[in-house]
Design brief:
Number of domains: 3
Shape: rod-shaped
Strand content: 15-25%
Subcellular location: Cytoplasm
GO molecular function, one term: protein homodimerization activity
Oligomer: single chain
Helix content: 55-70%
Strand order of the largest sheet: 1-4-5
Protein name: Protein GrpE
Number of helices: 3
Keywords: Chaperone, Coiled coil, Cytoplasm, Stress response
Order of helices and strands: HHHEEEEEE
Radius of gyration: 52 Å
Distance between the termini: 166 Å
Organism: Colwellia chukchiensis
Length: about 210
Amino acid sequence: MANESTENKSAEEVAAEELAAEIIEQAEEQVEEQLDAAVENISAEQEKINELELALAAAKSTVADQKDTVIRAKAEVDNVRRRSAQDVEKARKFALEKFAVELLTTVDNLERALENINKDDESNTAIIEGIELTYQGLIASLEKFAIKAIDPKDQPFNPELHQAMSMQEVEGVAANTVIAVMQKGYELNGRLIRPAMVMVSKAAPSVDTSA
């Protein structure tokens, strides 16, 4: 009887062990399935995160490009506006240049008339007064529009403003000095529109004292 009880207990234990093993196996399978599912979910979420990060990076790049484009466009607009303003200013300043150059011929003729007319002849008094009034009126009009005469008598010769027509040695006068103005020059708003035609002094020839 004792042996049967032992055998029966052994069979029950075996059955219990088998059942426990089966339960453990099923539990392990469920855990593995859940783990696999969790891994898949994590992979899917990570993939979504990667996609979102790529989309964010692309959006940032687009915003940066658009910002750069806007900045360049604004700079170009500012440049165009500045160039336009400069062109308008230049046009305003120098629109009278051609007309002024033509008008200078009349000024030159009036100056020559005043220089050559006989002022001692009383019959010329009215003519002289008329020429002087016309001349002064023209000069005032030229100055009103920022047209100024260049009359460099006794000044150093400046090739940027003067045109040397001849050179002459003059005792007591330093070389490269304007000794005569044949025709005045003129500037318009500081811009040369006609150089002054001048005669310039030159240095005396050196004397050889070696003999």
